[in-house]
Design brief:
Length: 223
Amino acid sequence: LLDDSGPAVVKNITLDRAVRIELTCKLDDKYSSLKVIQVTWKKGNETIGHINKTENSWSIHKLGSYNCTVKGEKEFSVVFHLQGKLLPKIDVKDKPVITYEGDIAVLVCKSLNSTPISWTWYMTNGSEQVAINDSLLLDKYVIDKVFPNVTQLKILKLTSKDDGVYWCEAAFELGKSKGKMKLKVLSLMVPLKPFLAIVAEVVVLVAVIFLFEIYSKRREKCA
């Protein structure tokens, strides 16, 4: 309801689901005889067109934050702020998932207190996120919907190329939420390195003892 008694009227509207919203600017009844020259709808700095006009009422069917300005003998303005409730948080493992080449990695995402419409998995390729399509790569990826609010990505036959960052994306009526995980793929030589280091130390020690024994025997003979 537009009035010139003060600054622009501000309307805050919070949505808990995706719906069709009709925003309406209507002059106060005391201005019913006022001649209107121009009605302008803006989203940010972008001017958009209205789709309906009835007497001194103008409407638009869109979502977002909008400003309606009515100009004539006087100028009136109203701002609509359409906002959704906070999207559910995606629960993921904080620490990196560590595994070895040739093994299977299992990444899990869970939506807290809400069931998504759908899930999508992504892998990071440089600076881009590439969607994982398990139907095209059956021998590499398996995506399981364990529960409606839980998704699981299995990565088969791990190689060093699978090392990196993975994302799970949950789609809700009012938007999307993402979870981020890091996968660390180690070479099979990694767990053997400590063992090989110990073996090397033992070999060096045995060699030193052996050489010392030979040296001692030679000294005895010389004596």
